[in-house]
Amino acid sequence: MRIRDISSLEEKSDTLVIAIVKEMIRAFSFPSQLISFLTEWDDHVMADIIALNSIKERTRERFQSSKHLNPLWPYL
After folding, report:
1. Is residue 75 in some structural domain?
2. Does residue 76 lie within any of the structural domains?
3. How confident is the model over 16-34, as pLDDT tens digits?
4. Residue 44: alpha-carbon gap to chain centroid
């Protein structure tokens, strides 16, 4: 993966999350059903989010520590 593709990947993942949430809202007939569903799966979802954020931070740290990439760091 090229360096410039990382920000594109982040944008795509944000777009995917928005699309999933919109689809979930459409799938449930009442907001209370959606809230119940999200509450039930909250622990699993939070674990996934924490894992993804950890990967993202490690990736950023790796890029930041590379001297030849430091000038690009603000753009990542």
Report:
1. no
2. no
3. 777 777 777 777 666 676 6
4. 15
